[in-house]
Amino acid sequence: MLGTRPEVIKLAPFIRALRVAAWAEADVLLTGQHGAMLRPLLDHFELDPVVELGVQRQRGTLTELIASMAAKLDSYFAARRPEGIVVQGDTTSAMAAAICAFSDRLPVFHVEAGLRSFDLEQPFPEEFNRRVISIAATLHFPPAEVSLQHLLSEGIDPERCHVVGNTVIDALLWTLEKRAGRASGFGANSFKILATCHRRESWDGGVDAVCDGLRRLIEQIPHGEILFPVHPNPVVAEVVHRILGGHPRIQLVAPLGYPEFCYAMEDADLIISDSGGVQEEALALGKPTLVTRWKTERPEVLQWDTVRLTGPDADAIVREGTALFEDAARYAASAQAHFPFGRGDSSSRIVEVLEKHFARA
Ligand code: UDP
Prior knowledge:
By secondary structure, the protein is of the alpha/beta class. It is built from 14 helices and eleven strands.
């Protein structure tokens, strides 16, 4: 089941692997909550045909989303009688699907299971969502050892947990293999910074601080440029345009298509982001990355110098960014690729586990 951009990206390689498996028949359920924004992504990964659930979002509240998901899934389950549902990560739609499937006695398979920040407010509502999904799931696919340990410490049967790496790496490597010299959107400046900022927990003053940090940082870096795909959320977009708009070396652009975003990560010298997925992708590409959050539920990424937490703190962004630009030794130590989430074989590993599961059932 797919609702948001990261879900499509992270489930696409798995869906592609499942569709060629002779033993399985897979419906791809699209909730519709991100509307037409996902169309190019579905095309990129060649995911058609999909089943459109047509979830309603008039008021935009999470409660409305949950209610609509429940109504749509009730009809879908009755019509198709699936033998299980695969959900990914920690969105509210995935949580709602897990509750509905559990209530209907359908097995739930959870891809990217076991991430925890241990703070229900950060990230909100994702920490709650993923914990609820773990209660409902039949099989759990934690990306790495730390997430496995979280599940075990919650009393989940180890036999039901399979560490498989993260399918985000499968998607990234597949996409870059097909790049064939395509452009990324950066100009000709010599130090390229890719920035994103969209998390709900950044809204309360955090976006202001990040933008303030970026504006000061670019003044420290002659011939530097920032490419900033701005999330369409009006709260975020207003702040970003107010603080960063009009600067000659800052490009504020609409969210990039996923392949273009991968090319931009590949071409960037520095990434500054609050995204979860970007932390994993940047590490696999060996791109120095500043994460503008106080906590990460992916502590594996912090074992090396490639990814650092700065919080949404303008001074820390300027300090760390300037140091990476000025200190070649520090930059070289940070520009190292590491693969705690696998090297692109997660999807096939999940399909193998599911095959065994259904063979036994
Ligand atoms: N991404 C994209 N276009 C953009 C920014 C990000 O395609 O302009 C991709 C990025 O490669 C990553 C995913 O979107 O795989 C991350 O999604 P997001 O930051 O929305 O969510 P999170 O990972 O924080 O849940």
